Every structure is written in structure tokens, then in C-alpha cells.
Amino acid sequence: MEESSKPLRYVDIGINLSDPMFRGHYHGKQAHDDDLDDVVQRAKDVGCAKFMVTGSDLVESEAALVFAMPPLACTLARQSSSTSTPGGPSKMIEDLRKLALESKEAGFTVAFGEIGLDYDRLFLSKKEPQLKYFEAQLDLAIEIGLPLFLHSRAASEDFERLLASRLDRLPKGGLVHSFTGTMEEMQRLVALGLDIGVNGCSMKTEENLEVVKAIPLERIQIETDGPWCEIRPSHASAKHLNGAPDLPKSVKKEKWQKGFMVKGRNEPVAIARVAHVIASIKEISVEEVCEAAWNNSIRMFGLGEQSQ
């Protein structure tokens, strides 16, 4: 891997800044002061110039809109693995349509999602309701005209089938975020014209690393998915951290001090380490990874920039 000589710039395309942890709340209790501004500033200091705040239900989407001022934008929808909605599917779709149209018009929302299928969590929602909601939201995304921000876990056959019949009506396509699937799944998604979002959870195993190595540069985007999906010492990716930027000192939440990270709470500042690991796996420069991911994100989501 070659060292970069130019300033790097990042888009964190999946960051859950509306999560209470970034306000010091854990499991309903205030553990430390609100340090959201510090979290964002730390990321900016390493070159993270754009943030996409994820909304995965109506409450989270409305919360994400609070953050949607440059350099922050947001995604907006309801994740299909949680399908219990007061008023039923038609009310949910109508509420989403109203919120999406208003926020898109205001320039806040850049993607429709997080939506998808999660068959690992059938205890939250059975398969049939998931399929029904996912189809309805895909059709709504076409109506709204936003690129997709997608989630798939253990559901590749249904996921790909429902997408394949609709992608030609979505001019900006979409991204499968926090990808942890197989080589074959990745190749099929890329063949559909979708981008692949990579974070710490995407690089836990040796098999994961082989998949990331094979993702075409013109289809890769990077994310942290904070406060989750940190790169851990037990992950296969950890051996690729040699020479990566150091993270600020972290302490347990009970011993939090201003300027410190919190152990176990992933932050967008870690985007630099995700890019470093990808570059090491692919045996190319970090600059190459960052520029490709940046251009892919701007091409798909805009984010107030002109695509190259």
C-alpha cells in the first residue's frame, strides 16, 4: 500500500448521529455530557467533510432531519425488519411520502432508506410483512425519485428479485450499506448497478476481506455505521491497521472526559481507519480509495457537490 501525499476527504455515508449515545444517553440513562459537537469535529479534523445521518423508521428519520444542515444530510424511510406501525402499511406509506417530499424539497434528504430485508431478525418481523413493506417502499422511492439506501441480511434471493424489476426506474440506483454478504452476492449486486457500503462489520472475517478486495473501486463507498460496527482487535481486518491513523484516547462512559472517545461507541472519526484497511486489502493507496469513494458518493447522493 502506498502512502498518500495529499489531504484526504471522506463521506461517511452511514452514521447514526441521532442515536442517544452521541448525547451521552445509554439504556435510558445519562452517563456523560452531550458530546455530539466534539464527535463531529473529530471527524472533520481527519477530513470527513460530509455525513449522511441514517433514518431507519419515522421517528429516526424525523430526528435525522434535525441534523440535515451542511455538511450533514440524511436518509429517510422505515426499515422493513420493524414493521409494526400504528394505522397499518397504508398510513406508514402516506406518512413517509409526506415527510420525504417535504424534506427532499428542502434539500435535506439525499436517499430513501434505510430499507430492505433482514431474515436474521424474524423475531422482530415475519417474512411476509417484511416483503410487503419493502415492495411498497421501493415503489414509493421510485415515486419520490431518490437513490436507495439498502439493507440486506440472509435474504439475498428475495432482496435481489424485488430490486431487479425496479432499478431501471431509479436513475441514481442505490447502495447496499454495511455489506456482509458473500462474494457471489456482492457480484450480483454490482451487476445490478448497485454500490457497496463498507464499514468495520464488513471486514470481520477472512472471507469478508476477500469480498472487499474484489469490490470494484467504482462501486465502493465507505461508512462507519457508528455508534456500531467498529473495527475490533479480534477482526481479520485488524492486521491491516499498521500505519493507520491513531484514534483519540477512549475511556469507559462512566469516566468520560471532554475530548475523549467512549469505549465501544464507534465514531465517524474512524472513517480514516476503514479507508486505510480497504487500501491495505486492495494493495493501493489510501488516496485512491478515498477519491473513488468520494466520487461515488457525490455521483449518487449529490451532497451539495458537483460529481466528476
**Cα-to-Cα separation, first versus last residue:** 25 Å
Mean pLDDT across all amino acids: 90
Major β-sheet strand ordering: 1-4-5-6-7-8-9-10
Helix content: 25-40%
As residue ranges, the low-confidence spans are none
Structural class: alpha/beta
Please tally the helical runs, counting DSSP H or I stretches of 4 or more residues. 9
Largest sheet: 8 strands, parallel
Record field, number of beta strands: 12
Structural write-up:
By secondary structure, the protein is α/β, with parallel strands linked by helices. 36% of the residues lie in helices and 17% in strands. It has an eight-stranded parallel sheet. Helix 2 links the parallel strand 4 and strand 5. Helix 3 (88-105) runs parallel beside helix 4 (127-144). It is globular and about 45 Å long. The model has no long low-confidence stretch (mean pLDDT 90).
Which secondary structure elements does this structure contain, and how are they paired or packed?
Layout: E1 10-15, E2 25-26, E3 29-30, H1 36-45, E4 48-53, H2 58-67, E5 72-76, H3 88-105, E6 109-118, H4 127-144, E7 148-153, H5 156-164, E8 174-176, H6 183-191, E9 195-198, H7 206-214, E10 220-222, E11 250-251, E12 261-262, H8 271-282, H9 286-301
Helix pairs in contact: 3-4, 8-9
Features:
TatD-like, alpha/beta, 308 residues, globular, 9 helices, hydrolase
Short description:
Keywords: Hydrolase, Metal-binding, Nuclease. With 308 residues, this protein is an alpha/beta fold. The chain has nine helices and twelve strands.
